[in-house]
Structures are given as C-alpha cells and as structure tokens.
Fold these 4 entries.
Entry 1:
Amino acid sequence: MIMIMPGASAAGGVNQGAATFNRLTPADYEKLQRESILLNAVSPVVFTQAQAISGAGNWRTRIQGVSTDYQTIRDWPVDQGTFFTSPICAARGRSPFSAARWRRRYFRRRPIGQQMQIRDVPFIVMGVLRSKGQGAGGQDADDIILVPFTTAQGRLSVGSA
C-alpha cells in the first residue's frame, strides 16, 4: 500500500506540519486511476471526526470518505449488506458503510436500511464491514463510518488527503 499525503505549509517561517496544505484534488485521483499501470486500486481518503446520531443514541466517531477501491486496498470484507458502488459515488450518494462496532452498539436492530445522521446530513446504512478489532496503533479499527468521498467532500465539508 502506498499513501500519498498533501504537503506541508509554512507560515511566518514556521512549518505547520504534514497535511496542513491540501494539494491533492479529485483530478489527481482520477489521473492516478486512469494512467497508472502499476496500481491495482486507488482511493482518495477524505477524513474528519463528527457527531453521528442513530435511533440508539449519538457519539463522536471517525468518518472517512473513500472510493469503491478502498475495500480492496484495506482488505475489509462485508459482513452485512453491500459496499457502495461507483454510481453512488458519482451521484454523491448518502449511503454510509459502517464498521462492526456500529451494528452492536448504535443500532437496536439490524442496521441495514436504517437512517442515521452525520452532522446535519441524513444517511441510510447500506452495509456493515467485518470487525477488525484494535489496530496496530491501539486505535479501534471498528469505530469508523465510510461514506463515498464525493459525499464527504460535497456534503460534510471536510479536508481531504
């Protein structure tokens, strides 16, 4: 896996750190996808943390806007439902794909087809990923919601990488 991050910026001679200056665009993603002969899959990742609300309560969680290739890149199988499709991404579809923690903790019944809200944007859950548990950095890999990157950019107003 190769990760390409936006560059750093400097203000008043002080380095602001990696990913403080967004230089990557959807056109960059499309060009990599179209012209690369060595890459099997390409996905932008638009990220933020936000308040998510379901019938069982609300919580602050990680939101990642990704393409359909993200599931292949991260080798993350579907446990219930389906992963979103390219037409949903192109249409800025509002169907999130959540990880396993959501099924157990934040929905009283089967989450597929249930409505939830991220910030002030309504979503319908179309799938649940298989549980991955704790990641190498100690972070809970299952406490995340995936949405189409076009939706994250256009509806959730977050930074991209």
Note: Strands lie at 10-11, 14-15, 46-54, 57-66, 78-81, 97-98, 115-118, 121-124, 127-129, 144-148.
Entry 2:
Amino acid sequence: MRCFLVPALALLTFHTSFADSPASEPIVLFNGESLEGWRGRSGLWSVVDGAIVGTTTDSDPIKGNTFLIYNGELPTNFELTAQFLIEGGNSGIQYRSKVVDEKGFVLSGYQADIDVALKFAGINYEEKGRGILALRGERTTIAEDGKKTKEVFGDAAKLGEVIKGGQWNEFRVVANGNRLQHFINGTMTSEVIDGEPAKAATQGVVGLQLHAGPAMVVKYKDLKIREIKP
C-alpha cells in the first residue's frame, strides 16, 4: 500500500445532454501517485492505492467544510468526470467555485453533491450561496431576478438506485454556458439553467469536499476534464 500525505500548501437517459457537443482531449487532474497540483489542509488528504483519500475522525473533527483544491487552469465550458467512493458522511465535487478562505481551504460555488445516505447524491448545491438549486430528478431554471422554476423529470428514489453503495461510481458534470447537468453512472440526476447574472458563475476552481460532522472517508480517482468547444 502506497500512501502520500499532502502538505498544507501543496501544489442520456432522461434528457439530451451538452456532453454530446464536441470536446477536446481530456486534461488529467490527478496523476494517481501524488497530490501534485492540488492544495488542502495537512493531515486530511492522502493518496492510497491510486486514489485521493479524504479522512476525518471523531477524535479530531473538523469545525467547518474544507476542500482539496486543484491549482491548474480550467476551461470555461467543460465535461468533468471522476470516480468516487464514500464511506460515511457527505462530500461533493465543487466546480466554477471561488476560494473564500485560503487558510482554511474553503470554497463557495456549485457542488455536485455526494452522500452515503443517497439523500443528496446527484443534486446541485451552491456551497455558501443559494443552497439547493436542484434536487435529484429536478430541472431548475433560474430567472434574472432569481426566481426559480422547477420541473420534475424523474423520481428521486428511482434515480438513486443507479448509485452503488460501498462501490466506485462515476460522477459526470457538464457545464456549458449557464446550463449545468449532473450524471451518476450515466444517468442524469439534476439540471440547472442559471440565468441570474448577479450570482451565476461562468468560471472558477475545482475542489473536493470534506464535510464537517461525524467521521468520514471519501475517495476519488480518474479525475479528468474536457473542454467543450463551441
């Protein structure tokens, strides 16, 4: 077993998807061996057997959500894919996000949510922002004034059945213009059309979440991003 600790400052099924748009060759975000190119809180993140592992404990709990943040440049419109496995708690993949606390590695922005209870997995949650934008099975259109119009395209419980508990699953995020689509194991779980210019994000960082609360372990591998071309 190989394990590398990160230093504190280490550098479809239901709806037509923008994933069908022309895309470039993928950018590999994680090399499978070290946390080169990422930064996060010391002692919480490591690489074990080819996967990024985030761990919290009951004996030394974290007081707020914290993130492992990717340092490299990212395209504006993209398809992001990652394999994840969660053992307790709540996590998520941040994208088009901004750093609000560099010392604590805290992010604000869109989140492709993941949780072991499968209550929130697949939803779109805006961390430190507008909260839940679309639940699993929802398509939300946000107007310029912030008013939300929701459409149900699938049953949340039924969609949750595609997620394999205690196993590796694939999360895919398609962000093209103001349309944000989440997929787990090839099935779309939520969609947001964000037309609120004062709050909608068109670019930003990618990060992986460790959630405050009970002890948890989350693992990520095969993180890649493809630019979606016009």
Note: Residues 1-21 have pLDDT under 50 and may be disordered.
Entry 3:
Amino acid sequence: MNLLSTGIKKIDRAIGGGLLPDSNILIIHETYSLGWIIGFEILQSRIKEGDYGVIMNTTLPLSSLEMELEQGGVDIDKLGKDRRLSIIDVFASIFKIDYGLGYVHYLSNFSAETFVPKYSQIYLRILKSEIGDRRPVGLDFTLDGLAFIMGEENTIKVFQRFMALKEKSRIEENRKRPINIFLLNRDRVSKNFVSWFSLYSHYVLESRILEGSLEVIEVKKSPLVYTPGEKPLKIKKRRGRIDVV
C-alpha cells in the first residue's frame, strides 16, 4: 500500500503509517488552540516531497495568515513565488483586495450559488498551468470560515458537490490522486456541521488544550487503525514552532 507521509513521524504512526492517496484529513481544534497549524505543516511537508499546494482561504487577510504561520515555520509567500503553491482567496474576493501576486487567485462576484463552478474553473486553470503531473494537496482554511460566509447548510451542500466532482475525476482521469486537508474550529459551528465533515473525512484529528502551551491531539478516525484515539499525542509551542512531543 502506497502511503504518503505527513512529514510528522508520530502522526504517521498514530494514523496507521501515513495518508492514503485521494483521502481527506480533518483537523478539529478549539479557540486558542494551535493544532490547526499542523495542517499547514503537513501541506509544507508534502510540497517538499514534490506535491503542489492549493489553499482555499476564507478566514483571514493574507498578511494575518502569514503572521500566524511564522510560528509553524511555514512561509506561504515563498512557496507561492517558487510556483509550488497557489491560493484561491475567497476572503480577498469578497472584500475586493488585490494583492498583485501571481499565485493568488480570486472569484468574481462571489455567491453561494455560483461558488462551485467558479472555484472549479480556477482550480482547473491551476491544474493545467501549474500543477501538471504533481500531486495536488488542498488545504481549506477554514471550514468554519466558509460556513460563516455561506451558512452551514450551503457549505455542506457545496462539499457534497465537490465530492461528486472528485469521484468523477477519479474515474475519468489518470493522474496522481490528491490529498485534502480540512481545518475546523469546533467552537464556531454546530455539532451537526462537525458530524458531516467527520463523515466526509477519512482521517480525523482533534486537538484539545491541556494547560499553558501544551495540547493533545487524538486520532478520532483512520481507515488504517482499528481502534483510533488510544494514545493521544502531545503538541507544544516552543522556539517559535509547533512540535509533536
């Protein structure tokens, strides 16, 4: 079985060896948690292995996101300028912000009704012009941000359509299968919303704050582990980085 490393050995072991191609990984966190940064560390690790990153940003201005990611050692501006990453910036699209950067893409006249076709059009353009024969690794920052913009029910329906499109491409296309990383703050959405995306995801990691800068991550779901969640992992902020300890 061809498993893809997250780049974090302890997480690889906890989920059964790595990520299956064509799989989704959901990282659930709470307010003040730093667990979400692990999603970007996985993305950066996969890019170093030759994959291509595609970030959907619905939550923060890019300057704020870059500042947050400094503590995880992730430089999305450098990755973008090196043509190893693209950003589909929903936040900037809504508020009419143009960064003048070739790796940042925008949706015109954003609406819930036209989101899927417009997003898909941009993604296909990136696929042809940038990704080529590399594996796409998508990261949604964040699901709760999209739910705030479109409403939970619309967001769930949108991802059902994305899943159908992904299934068709799996059948019809012959290329490296993608990985998708979903980030979700559970404090901002309903239990119903969390339940739906836990169902959509093959892997579910959940972080909880213990005390100070110490958190634990539990594997709630993995297709490679029969009884997930038995050995929680600890993560800690130290020296400006997020480490699994």
Note: The mean pLDDT is 93.
Entry 4:
Amino acid sequence: MMPRYTRFSGTFRASCLLVAEQCYGSKGVWAHHAFDHVNHSYFGGRLPHPHIVWGLTAFGSCFAWASCSREKSRQPVITLHPVLLGSTAEEPPWGIPRRWLGASLVFDVLLHECIHIHIDTRLGGHDGPTSHNCDRWVRQINRLAPLLGMKDVEFGRSKVARVPIEGAPLTVRGKRPTRVARVCTGNVPFTVGAGFPMSLRRFLGTASRHYSKNELPPGVPSLPTSV
C-alpha cells in the first residue's frame, strides 16, 4: 500500500509554501524550491515533501536536523539554523567562515538532510551504529559525489581493526606487531563522509571558492537578498 505521505504530498507541499511565506518570508519559500531541485535531481522525485523550519536546532549543536516519524502518515521535518544565511557574530558557530554563509551552503545542507530522509523513509533506516556510519549512508554519498562533480573519492565505514605498529621490531615469528585502532575503509577520512557534501568540499580545497561565490546548481533560483 502506498504510504499516506506519498499520496498527499502535493497538498502538503502547497500548505508548506503558505506557512513558509507567512512565517519566514522569501527564505522560507526558497528553501522549498531548493528542496524540490534536490529531490528531483538526486532522488528521482521520490522523497516525501518535508515541513522546513527555520529555527534553532537542539542545543545549537548542529546547523540542521532532519526528523522522520515512525508513523508513515506523518511528513518529515527539516530544521535549518538561521545563521546559515549570515551572522553578525565575531566568530560564527561550527568553525564556518562568515563569507561561506549563504544560499549555496544551505543547498548543501538540504542535500545532506535529504539523504537522511531517503534512508529513513525509503531504505528502512540506517543499518549501522550511527546514521553516518552505516552502509546505506556510504552507498548514497558514493553515488552522489560524482553527480556533484567530485570524483576519485571513495567513502567507507569507520571500523575497529588490527593495524601494524609502525617502526616496531618484528616479533620472533618475523611478523609486524599490531594494535587495535579505528580505521576508515575508504580513501578519505570518515569525518569527510559524515559531513558530506560540505566536508568533502573542504577536504578537496574547493569549499572557500564554492561558498564565497554562492554557487548554486543550474535551475535553482537565487535567494532574494532581503531575507
């Protein structure tokens, strides 16, 4: 049976746009248009439309949050921290340079949260110890990275394994001693995958140019300056 959120997503989207315009103005409406682009470009238009809230995340610990109810009749909720569009603080939170704040950063954050929605609503939820350290997350970001023009990277899980101790003398059996350590199975650090796509842009050295120029994919409307 088709989930209720799929059958009524069109009506729900229209309601969300009305609420967004009344509560958040142009930035609220723009966020829904940006979501539409992410949904159709990267997920085949199959994601349920979320209610997008501009507000403080729990304890201010992150700049966005996606929440999916276990009740299939309820739509997902994405919370976007207002500081993503600009900050007057001397030091913006999360170690993000002030010049990076803007629509381009919000777009990447929306994409990140949409991966969570895709996994939670269509793939059965995360299948690892955390929502980022799981095979389903890894498969999705390995699929999406080339679509964003970022190639030659391979994301992997964070796992505990025995690794050789560098510089240690060989044992009496002629083998290198080992120790238990946490390793990543990909060719980039695990944290790069956990913060995808912004963390990957940082790792590749393209984040400053990308966010400072406020680059958006073709087809995504520009965010009005008066937000």
Note: The first helix runs from residue 4 to 7.
